[in-house]
Structures are given as structure tokens and as C-alpha cells.
Amino acid sequence: MTIQDHDSFNADLVEFLDASPTPFHAVLSMGKMLLKAGFTELNESVEWTLEAGNKHFVTRNGSSIIAFVVGHDDLVTNGIRLVGAHTDSPCLMVKPQPEIDSHGYFQLGVEVYGGALLNPWFDRDLSIAGRVVYKNSKNQLKQKLVDFKTAVATIPSLAIHLDRDANNDHSINAQTDIIPILMLGNEGSVCESDTPQSFRELLRERFLAESDDVLDYELCLYDTQPAAVIGLKREFIASARLDNLLSCFAAAQAMIGANAAHTCLLVCNDHEEVGSVSAVGADGPFLENIVGRLSGDQSASVTSRIINRSLMISCDNAHAAHPNFPDKHDSEHLPKLNGGPVVKVNVKQRYATTSLTSSLFRQICAELEIPVQTFVSRNDLGCGSTIGPVASARIGVPTLDVGIPQLAMHSCREMTGADDPLRLTKVLLEFFNKAEAITVELE
Questions:
Q1: Which pTM value belongs to this model?
Q2: Are 97 and 75 members of one domain?
Q3: Is the pLDDT confidence value at 422 over 80?
């Protein structure tokens, strides 16, 4: 892979962000990128024949993906170079029976997914995307990714005249205050026949054949405002889902450039924002299963030796210091946008970084002349986590947590620096291709 220039890289990143409103669409987008780069897709349900130099990827549930390059060197001697990220972001998910006909409006019941910052969801032009499962005319079960693409919903704020304290002390009731409006309901519609009897009927009419029957779905709302490079000097990127599709894109670009000297692996898990406990999450068996196949399902002793010589870089965006709220940050750890990748440290093991793993990352950054920052939470504030500690505990691989600094984390519109995504990609590419062993010898 030839690293693109700054502007071309960010243009591709923006395109990826806009094409990936859900984990399903993100995995589809990544799969297309990998196929174009010569990777082939594998099926978990069949035997694999893996040869040195092969480049493959496999998906699970359509929302998690693992890509890998089979290296020419010995696995037991050199281990596996792993990079991890996650495909999901906090959002509003449509409930199974969402129809609410209230005061002349057709509304949708939604459930909050992850630790979403709810205030920014008001007064946005919202669309709906995700996966629909249906039965066709031959009584066969099928699935389809859908995306309304245009703005079809909104959550209006209550006027200041009706809530004089809105700017002083306003809390949001997630059950009653964030119900999106889709259209006028039967009471307000000029023609009642224009209003669907159910949300499933609306989905069938929009995306399926008349004889199809929608059985279930996993759909979320998303902000239709496209990702953009912003700022007077175009030094920022603003978008939905920067946490953590930005890491997915950077890691995928690095994986595409892996030279096959070493065995390298990229895992992007779903469900990180809700704890990672699922068949496709980091606390599930997906990564463990694929590592077993790469090692040839050898004895536990051999696999243990492979893991011991491996290293995982868990990539998940980091908190940049907020200029309006400096007291929310540790005074000696203030990451800045465009200040370089951030090593994330937490003694309670909310991050998996150790002095050994962080030193290896810092060494690579120094060789590339890329600046490195460090994040530590205040002692009196809680700390988020990543797939790093989960995957590390599950398979025992030495791990560190890093991320690109951003503002407005978990908002439906986030912000990061325009320089740092390419910087992280260069570091990950060097990690995959670095000739020396990724270990620290004890004297």
C-alpha cells in the first residue's frame, strides 16, 4: 500500500463514514475495501486451507469482521500482530413494536443503545437504517440491509416558552422525551390510507416485494448530516460515529498494506458500547476461534507460545481536552486534536496498556516521527473502556489501548483532528510490517 496524501485519505474516510450508518453497513463497506485490495472472503462453516501470503476476511452476524494476512515467518517464533476496534456506536434503536399514534402524529418507540449523549439528538434530520429479516413468497427466510437515506424523522425540542428552565437544569427522560415523529397519524392525516398500519408494513412497502412479510429487524436512527472536513484551515473532521468507525477505517487501510512477511490480523467487533458480551463481541469466541484456525488448531501449549509472542493494539478514540471544561481532565494529561495518537492508561485495567506494550508503540511512533500523547482519567471521574482489556483477558495476548483524540464523544455529531487519522494508519502499517520482533527482552 502506498500511503495516500492527507486530503485523499480524509476524503476516503468521509466517504466510509457516510456509507456506514450501522455496524452492518460498516462491515459491508470494509468487506468491499478488502475485496478490492485482493482479500478473499471465507465462510466459518467450512474447512480452510491457509497458505503463506494469503489474504482473507470473515464476518459473523454481518456486524463483526476479522481480516488477516497469513505471513511467511514462523508463528511460534514471531506470533501474530493484531489490531482491534469496534463497529458499533451509541444510537437510538427502533423497538420491536414501535408504533405510537399520539395527538395526530405517527411516532416510533426507540431504545437507547450504549451511553448515548441524548441532547444532540433533538432537532436533527434523522434517517433509519439496519437489517430486516423477512419471509418471501417461497416461504424462505431472507435478510436485507436497508437505509432510508433521506431524512424521515425528527425529535423536536420543547419550546423555551414551555420550559423556562431548559437552559439551566434540563434532564431527559429516555422513555418519554426522545420519541421521533415520522409523519402525521390517522388523526392528522388528510387521507388516512396514507398512514401505514404498522412500521413493518412501511418497511415492506419501501424495501421489499408485495408478497414479502417482514418478520423482524435491527434498525437505528442516524443523523443525515454528512461527514465533513471543517475549520477555517480545514483542520478538523466532524461526523457521526467517529467513535469508533475512524479506528476501523485506519486499521483496515493498514491491513490492506500489510506485506505478508508476518501474520497480521484485524478484528472489528460489534457490541462494544454495551459490554462486548455476545457471540460477535470481544467477550465472545470470534477472535479466539479465528486465532485457533490460524495456528492450525495446535495444542494448547503451542497456541500459548504463539500468543505469548504476539501483540494487540486496541484502537478506540480518546478524550481530547475540552477547552470549555478543562477541570474535567487530569491537568498533566491533556490530549489535543492533531497532537498525535493517544496511549490510554488506567490502573484499574479499564485499558489494557502496560509499560511494555506502550513502549513498543512509542518506539514505532518515534521511528516515524509521529507525536504521541497520553490519557489518564481524573481520579474522581469514571473511566470508559474498550475491547482491549476484554480481548486480552479472553486470549491472553499482551495489549495496549490507543486512540485518536476527539471531542463530543458519544454525541450524534463528533469532532476530531484532520491530521491524526492518517498518522494512526501509518503507525499501524509499520506495526504490521516491522521487521523486528514485537517483544521486549528481559535483561
A1: 0.95
A2: no
A3: yes
